[in-house]
Amino acid sequence: MSNALPRPRDITRTWFVREYARYEPGTSPVPLGRATVTLAADHAGVITATVNGQPATEGAAVALLNRCKACGTVELVKEIRMCLGKPAASSLHRDLARIGALRANHYQIASAALGRTIASFTHIQAHEVDTVLAFTSSLIRGAA
User: pTM value?
Assistant: First the structure.
């Protein structure tokens, strides 16, 4: 059994960070700098990073975030999830059932509509929902 954490998928997060240091214990913190850090994970879990808009390694970006958490400030300014969340995925299942698709066929229908294997509706992007619904409607109308 592996203790590895699952890789994040289809998400982009951007933070504004400020880093401080102290010259001596008990002295006031001195600002060292500030930056905008973005980490993005694609559908395959491949992570890309930027610091101040410039490409960076994942390790460098995470190290900067961790330093600022310890001696500075970290503010999440934007989070973009590129796929459906669980409530939206559940809603899509209900919509397909209302159209007349059997639940056992939902993933097969979505896979055919999108041209790739869909094992969970949380792997579908929000803009693809209409494609799946239209495909399902035409499929059900054609079978009737």
Answer: 0.60
CA distances from 126 to 93, 110, 143 (A): 14, 13, 27
Identify the CA nearest to 13 among candidates 75, 83, 84, 60: 75
Phi (first) and psi of residue 110, to 5 degrees:
-60, -40
> pLDDT, tens digit, for every residue of 56-69?
999 999 999 999 99
- Write the burial class of residue 136 (CB in 10 Å: 0-12 exposed, 13-18 middle, 19+ buried): buried
User: pLDDT tens for residues 125-141?
Assistant: 888 899 999 999 999 88
Residues found in the chain: 144
Please state, for a pLDDT cut of 70, what percent of the chain lies above it.
Answer: 92
Q: Which residues of 16-36 are buried (b: 16+ CB within 10 A; e: fewer)?
A: ebbbbeeeeeeeeeeeeeebe
Find the helix or strand (DSSP H, E) in which 61 lies. helix 58-70
